[in-house]
């Protein structure tokens, strides 16, 4: 079996950075046809197409994304060799994780925590909307996304949804605001409340609950970012509809207190992956751990 030609790999890496064959050829001062030959030889050697053309741009296939990850690791190892006497860092494998912008930061930290002390792993954590994250997952820009909203699944979008944890949702507020009252109905009659944005699972459950209780609470704010909700509630002027995990530290130090859990409302934490021929094995390890230990400690 022929050895891998690393010159071919370097040319592939350069094209992957630019996403355009002619631009890379000009930058490297080689002809476009010669560059195409180098890429084709690498594809023949690996047995997989590495790019697909969409209009004038080149996009990585799944095999191309895997090859790019390995190419970056290989070249980083070369840099490490050159910089050993300067004690430069070691090459690391990338794990790309997307998280819904509104998702509990404590939950996100709990998910990635096993990787933070590993010197062989580089964690890339990005936040965004559900649509942005799912698009990045489909284009192989992310390995997994963390969300509380299950995506629609059909034959064209083969998402795999892993249910990691389900946390109760409570009314939370400053001690001076709650006083001795803990009953949900009494608190909602007398205090303004900060709510998740309309359309979220928690908001749908809350709206149904107050309808059953025949209540019309005063809404102080509607917020689509859980970290911002936490900050507003800490100011002490309104209650918050939050899973306790999102304010774990504040509950522990007494800055906030938890009233009764809101009946029938829970936040479900999900990891979403997509069917891939070459899945990232580290993601599988993270999901397996999360399902064994569903963040009760978080």
UniProtKB/TrEMBL annotation:
Keywords: DNA-binding, Transcription, Transcription regulation. Residues 4-61 form the HTH lysR-type domain. InterPro entries: LysR_HTH_N, LysR_subst-bd, WH-like_DNA-bd_sf, WH_DNA-bd_sf. SUPFAM superfamilies: Periplasmic binding protein-like II (SSF53850), Winged helix' DNA-binding domain (SSF46785). The keyword Transmembrane does not apply. It comes from the Bacteria. GO terms for molecular function: DNA-binding transcription factor activity; transcription cis-regulatory region binding. Gene3D superfamilies: Periplasmic binding protein-like II (3.40.190.10), Winged helix-like DNA-binding domain superfamily/Winged helix DNA-binding domain (1.10.10.10). Belongs to the LysR transcriptional regulatory family. This is LysR family transcriptional regulator. It comes from Novosphingobium sediminis.
